[in-house]
Write a structure and sequence with these properties.
alpha/beta
């Protein structure tokens, strides 16, 4: 179900002509809906995808200026290659890609896959591209960061070795997305950069993300939820698009305005106390730098100020 036409929707996006955006995980679901809306508003949009053939097939259905580039967030060498190939300014980076509730596995670099893909891959990508970014970074988080049980960052066991549970790992990765946004904004402000870091979550959006859940019972539940509760991918992308195109303070967090933030029009929403802790945000940043070998650079906007 889409949001009410009387509330903010994709037709309210201001003219994006002359702007360039990168959207990770852009060949389906929230990603392709985000690409389509930005391209329709005039932006040139790069679909950063693991499978270029699938990316090209998705891009073929988009009206506007788009291109496809390979990016595997579960492989830091791919992240480095993508960033090294970038030339010129980048107005907008949307960290959209993600995996959810999958069986235990490891990225190419040996990280737990959900933490490695959802957080570390985007952490490295953002910092490597930051010298080119001129406007903002939007990272897609989730209401799962505050699931029952008070999710927290397992600093002594980030890979959850010996205690892995799909939902625990997913919740940790989404909490990491919000802490990353918080600390990135602090560093941008401290450096004098006008670049902003924001986060958004889609509520319950019907995408293929749920089909990879490691539990058959949860997959069945999510199929029912997708049919009777969820909004479609276009509506689910609205909080991301709002964060990407509206004049909002850095570190803002957007989500749907409906019951339990599951559906509705985009609005500012709250986050857990764990996602608001600056000490945890700094500690996670330090750990992420050590794990990826990527550090905070001089942002483009600050360097030219």
């Amino acid at each position: 179900m889409t949001t009410s036409p009387s509330k903010w929707n994709a037709t309210d996006i201001p003219d994006q002509t002359g702007r360039t955006a990168v959207v990770t995980g852009a060949n389906s679901g929230l990603g392709i809906a985000t690409v389509a809306a930005l391209a329709a508003a005039g932006a040139h949009v790069v679909l950063a995808v693991r499978d270029p053939k699938r990316g090209e097939a998705a891009a073929a259905g988009v009206h506007g200026s788009v291109e496809v580039r390979r990016l595997d967030l579960a492989d830091l060498s791919s992240v480095r290659e993508f960033a090294a190939d970038w030339q010129g300014d980048l107005d907008l980076l949307i960290n959209n890609a993600g995996v959810m509730n999958i069986p235990e596995s490891r990225t190419k670099d040996g990280f737990e896959t959900q933490f490695g893909t959802n957080h570390l891959g985007h952490f490295a990508l953002t910092n490597l591209l930051l010298p080119h970014i001129t406007d903002r970074v939007v990272t897609v988080a989730s209401g799962a960061h505050k699931m029952p049980g008070s999710p927290y960052i397992h600093f002594d066991n980030l890979d959850l070795t010996g205690e892995y549970a799909p939902m625990t790992a997913y919740s940790q990765s989404k909490l990491a997305n919000l802490l990353f946004t918080l600390e990135l904004q602090r560093r941008l402000s401290e450096s004098g950069s006008p670049v902003r870091a924001l986060a958004a979550h889609p509520g319950w959006a019907a995408t293929n993300l749920q089909s990879h859940d490691g539990s058959a019972l949860r997959r069945a539940f999510m199929r029912l939820g997708n049919r009777f509760v969820a909004q479609d991918n276009k509506a689910g992308a609205l909080p991301t698009l709002y964060a990407a195109t509206q004049d909002l303070p850095g570190a803002s967090y957007l989500g749907p305005d409906g019951l339990a933030e599951m559906r509705g029009a985009p609005t500012l929403v709250g986050r857990s106390s764990a996602a608001s802790d600056p000490a945890s945000a700094r500690r996670l940043w330090t750990a992420s730098e050590e794990l990826t070998g990527v550090t905070f650079p001089q942002p483009a906007a600050a360097a030219t100020a």
